[in-house]
Amino acid sequence: xxxxxxxxxxxxxxxxxxxxxxxxxxxxxxxxxxxxxxxxxxxxxxxxxxxxxxxxxxxxxxxxxxxxxxxxxxxxxxxxxxxxxxxxxxxxxxxxxxxxxxxxxxxxxxxxxxxxxxxxxxxxxxxxxxxxxxxxxxxxxxxxxxxxxxxxxxxxxxxxxxxxxxxxxxxxxxxxxxxxxxxxxxxxxxxxxxxxxxxxxxxxxxxxxxxxxxxxxxxxxxxxxxxxxxxxxxxxxxxxxxxxxxxxxxxxxxxxxxxxxxxxxxxxxxxxxxxxxxxxxxxxxxxxxxxxxxxxxxxxxxxxxxxxxxxxxxxxxxxxxxxxxxxxxxxxxxxxxxxxxxxxxxxxx
Length: 349
Ligand SMILES: [Zn+2]
Ligand SMILES: [Zn+2]
What we know:
Layout: E1 5-9, E2 19-23, E3 28-32, H1 42-45, E4 48-52, H2 58-61, H3 64-71, E5 77-82, H4 86-95, E6 110-116, E7 121-128, E8 134-142, E9 147-150, E10 154-162, E11 166-174, E12 177-180, H5 182-188, H6 195-204, E13 212-219, E14 222-229, H7 230-237, E15 238-241, E16 245-249, H8 256-266, E17 271-275, H9 283-288, H10 294-303, E18 309-312, H11 322-333, H12 337-345
Parallel strand pairs: 3-4, 4-5, 5-6, 16-17, 17-18
Antiparallel strand pairs: 1-2, 2-3, 6-7, 7-8, 9-10, 10-11, 11-16, 12-15, 13-14
Helix pairs in contact: 10-11, 10-12
The structure holds zinc ion (ZN) (2 copies).
């Protein structure tokens, strides 16, 4: 069925990190990481409302400048999330440029930078183009469990994993979706129309049973309309299914502590994007670099009972051999007992 959130890797070859998610019906998008986003067309970048950065290694944050350059004078607001010291780092990025004419731009840009630390405390600050991006409006907050961002149709949760530095692993969760059973619609003698959106919204927001809903539709006999209370439509026409859950996990060591964080965040995830940087034959090197091998990534996906797997962030050393990385991850995910045992045996650091 049609989904609200449509994710795709920023780099179709999957070598570079980054995920862009279309929020359908809202003409807006979310970004996970700010790497080589230059390959995304400006019309996509201009829709970005929120960016969730895993950590500020260059391959995950150097694209900030590009997003800013595209958005200046055209984008009204941008919210950026990151880990410890992220607000300072956004400020440093902004202070590296000269802003003597920016206040003349027709569309002013407000950047809201928000950071969290592993203890669940966070702080935010605002940078406004009208004041040459001077830092202001600072505030502190505490996370509600692991929820970073929550709105009517989706939420974003995050937990820290270790990469010899704290890195955020993300879960993007669509809230419940309302599914319409066509045979029940037919039994009621109506067809679909814009009224369905109103009905879905009423169901999802827990509107009262007596809420009148006007059904308007058109068929070969012309226009029709009738008013029914929500209570009457609810059981006849709809059922509600859990929304899709999407994981974005990159830059971490294969440790039991990390896997436990991912289990809390992403068990039974529908679609898991996970780094597969090295082949398992290079696992000693992967450990030194604080990255996963493809087999480790696949074994983690298996432990999370991920329903679909998207490997990405391939080391350039495998140029021309990335098929091997994907195959190794998929084999481990598909159930090599050896890999599963390996992940179970991992010791906390
Ligand atoms: Zn990286
Ligand atoms: Zn990194």
